Amino acid sequence: MKNFLLSVALLVSISSFISPSFDDVVKALKAGDASHLATYFDNTIEITLPGKSNSYSKSQAELVLHDFFASNTVKDFEILHKSDNSGSQYCIGNLKTINGTFRTTVFMKQKGTTEVLQELRFEK
C-alpha cells in the first residue's frame, strides 16, 4: 500500500512539472514573446485582435501574434481577474503596449495531461 501511495504521489508531482504553467503564459505575454506562447497553443486557437477575429492553426497563430507584438511592443501585462474551474483557467488583464492598452482575455483548458491555450483576445 505504501508503494502504491508513493507511486501516486510521484506521478502527481511529475505531472505538475509536465503541464505548462499559467504563469509561463503570463510571462510570455509580458515579454511579447509569440514563439513562447505558441508552445502552449492547442491544435487550433481563436485569436481576436482589433478589427479581426479568427481560428488559426498553431503556426498561423504564431505568425499573427508575432506581427501583433511587432506593431505593439509590450511594456507590461497586468492581471485584473483570474479564475479556474473544472480543468479550465482564464484571466482578464491589461496588456500595456507602446500603442496603448489592450484588454486581454486568456483561456486555457486541460487537454489530456497538459493545459493548452484555446483563446486569446486583445481588445482596445
TrEMBL record:
| Key words of the record | Signal
What the entry lists under InterPro entries is as follows:
DUF4783
Give yes or no: UniProt keyword Signal. Answer: yes
Question: Gene3D superfamilies, from UniProt?
Answer: 3.10.450.50
- Signal peptide extent: 1-21
The molecule here is called DUF4783 domain-containing protein
Taxonomic source organism: Ginsengibacter hankyongi
